[in-house]
Specification:
By secondary structure, the protein is an alpha/beta fold. It has helices at about 5-25, 60-65, 85-105, 115-125, 130-145, 155-165, 205-220, 225-250, 265-275, 285-300, 305-310, 320-335, 335-350, 370-380; strands at about 35-45, 50-55, 65-75, 110-115, 150, 175-180, 185-190, 200-205, 260, 280-285, 360-365.
Length: about 375
């Protein structure tokens, strides 16, 4: 073939190759939707590096049509800001990126990489912003892509993206989303019937920070009874100093019919209360249900083991092996004390919306970690 002819055909050849790569990526996974595409989102968070591989359908924003294909996290403790945790984070960031591009054959333009707001806040607090910049520069050098975008998201942006990615469009303007993270809690709602104006909600308390503050109060007495006693004090302080004010200041009570919680603790509580609803990305709960669950965490923790929970499921059509695996995963991520801390914080926030005069619907979102990915994709691809 003549060089001129080859040059003319080059755009067509590249297009065919790109379409083949997309098809190959999709064939690596079991997809749910027609006219969908596979994306990967990799986030450097407070605890470590997370990767979500998701299938996003054409109606993702109106119906929440996304399907989690792969969900991986590696604890590297980047916010310790030490040489070992820096290199551990860099290596895992590189490994997860390489896995998505090389193993899953997802084009690099469909792999989104960000640094979470929690990391940004902690770095600013400790004057360690250069650690984030060094991580990003080292990552670009390692993958040999100087133009790779690694955005450091702010709290407002992350909360807004999460809302856009998690809450279906049909409930966009009457849902208050609250993401309980490891180090902090953030969320908000759209008060004016558009997606430009977003009212931010945030607390300095998260599952891990609550547990850590409680542990510090325990001193030499590390018993569960003393932990529970000190946790009550920590949460009461958090409620009086921050939670009541933050909820009132948000102005969400009169305009939000639905209160949705996301984050690791929301996934854990939903999974342990309703293990049989393993395929439901969102479950509805009441304040009293979560309160009873919280009491079980302290008084009868063994009843929440995978063996006991699966044994109590009578529906023979359910995949008990898959349910047991998911329950085990909860216990691998959170120990008893962390579950108590996170659930206690969840209850303190829920309490502000519990009223004899008006009922609010409470929802626990299990797949909140992919929320920012779907919204990020939507904003960056124009779908």
């Amino acid at each position: 073939m003549h060089k001129t002819q080859l040059k003319a055909l080059l755009p067509f050849i590249l297009l065919v190759f790109l379409n083949f790569s997309l098809l190959y990526a999709q064939n690596n996974f079991k997809l749910k939707y027609n006219n969908s595409a596979v994306y990967a989102g990799i986030e450097v968070g407070s605890k470590g590096v997370k990767m979500s591989v998701i299938e996003i359908g054409k109606n993702a924003q109106s119906r929440g049509a996304f399907n989690i294909l792969k969900d991986t996290s590696v604890n590297t403790d980047f916010i310790s800001f030490s040489e070992p945790t820096f290199h551990a984070t860099l290596n895992e960031l590189y490994n997860l990126y390489s896995t998505s591009v090389k193993d899953y054959k997802i084009p690099s333009r469909l792999v989104f990489t960000v640094v979470s707001s929690g990391v940004k806040i902690q770095a600013e607090k400790e004057d360690k912003a250069e650690w984030i910049n060094n991580l990003i520069d080292s990552f670009k050098l390692k993958i040999k892509d100087p133009d790779r975008q690694v955005e450091v998201v702010g709290v407002l942006q992350e909360a807004r993206l999460s809302h856009l990615g998690i809450v279906p469009e049909t409930r966009r303007y009457n849902t208050f989303l609250i993401d309980i993270g490891s180090g902090n809690t953030k969320g908000g709602y759209f008060p004016n019937g558009n997606t430009r104006d977003f009212k931010l909600f945030q607390l300095t308390w998260g599952t891990k920070s609550t547990a850590n503050a409680t542990e510090k109060r325990c001193n030499e007495d590390k018993t569960l009874t003393n932990f529970n006693k000190q946790l009550y004090r920590v949460l009461s302080e958090a409620e009086n100093s921050e939670i009541i004010y933050a909820v009132n200041e948000s102005g969400s009570y009169p305009v939000s019919d639905n209160i949705a919680f996301s984050g690791g603790i929301a996934w854990s509580v939903a999974t342990l209360i309703y293990p049989e609803l393993i395929d439901n990305p969102v479950v509805s709960v009441t304040y009293d249900q979560v309160l009873k669950f919280n009491e079980t965490l302290f008084n009868n923790y063994s009843s929440l083991s995978d063996a006991v929970l699966v044994k109590n499921i009578n529906d023979k059509n359910l995949d008990k092996e898959a349910i047991a695996k998911e329950v085990k995963r909860v216990h691998q991520v959170f120990d008893q004390k962390s579950l108590m801390a996170g659930t206690g914080l969840l209850l303190k926030i829920m309490r502000q919306f519990k009223s004899v005069y008006e009922s609010k619907q409470f929802f626990l979102v299990k797949n909140g970690q992919v929320g920012w990915v779907s919204a990020y994709v939507d904003q960056n691809t124009g779908k």
